Amino acid sequence: MGDKMTQGIPKEKINVLMLSIWYPLSMSRYWENAFNRNPDVELRTCGVYTGSWIPWLGGLNVLEKYAKSPTYPLPFKPNIGRIPYEIVKAQLDGWIPDIVIAVDAGVNWVSKPSDGKVVSIFTDSHCLDYSHARSVSDVSYNMHPKYAQGDDVLLHYAFDPDVHYPMTEIEKDTDAVLIGMPYQQRIEWVNRLRSLGISVLFENGPIFDEYRELNNRAKVGLNWSSLGDLNARVFELMAMKLCPIIDRCDDLERFGFKEGHHYLGFSNLDEAVLRVQWALNSPHEAEEIALAAYNKVNMEDFTYDALVSKVLKEFRLDE
Asked: Is 174-299 assigned to CATH 3.90.950.20?
């Protein structure tokens, strides 16, 4: 990509154009935060903008403060999965991206953009087909190693240090927490725990500040993935220093997480209930697991900032 020079003048920033569907909360919001924190980057964003609306449970509106427009918003229309690059390029007013990134949770380009290195980041390969995205990208990053294909570069989910952190000032007034989609296995788990007198915060809708505050009220954090995938909640629970009680996923071992040391694992409902009971009856041991997990994700930098650095390192203009 050259030597980071433009007509002999040193180029101070790497121009990054990011395409996504701009819901108030999505993985692209965390990538956006991390790119904005990186001093080497000038970030501009584009794509369909939904305001405060998010398609959870058939559609709901979150707090208006989380509705943040991209630099170049496109009209919200259902089922827009492919965007012509020319529509966005016409709005750039001479600004040329060095890297064009699609954080793809269901949207990418019609054809390969004519500017820069073209990158796709697959956030949902456990449930989406990324065949077309691979065909319009120079490099494809996959956040679900279990579902990676071909030449996908392996990443993982992560946590945002400005969002996911312990709040020692908040009282631990509930036993367990699971903020997320009400999948059937999660409903059955929570119902069983509640029938045993275990209090559980189980909601879908709180995001960012409210999400962090609810999690910090609990003694242990719960997660049951939809398809055996190592999802973002695992890293978020660890970053908030909660003892993670999570279903066993192949990718946990890949990234060095050890059962009984960094998390309590389970493979079925009965085992999931027993793990919660053990953690609540063994608070000292549960706190040791929470601390080990917290230290690992922080010391080994399982942040979106580290993922951004990985992407920039491979395409950095001055190397």
From this structure: no
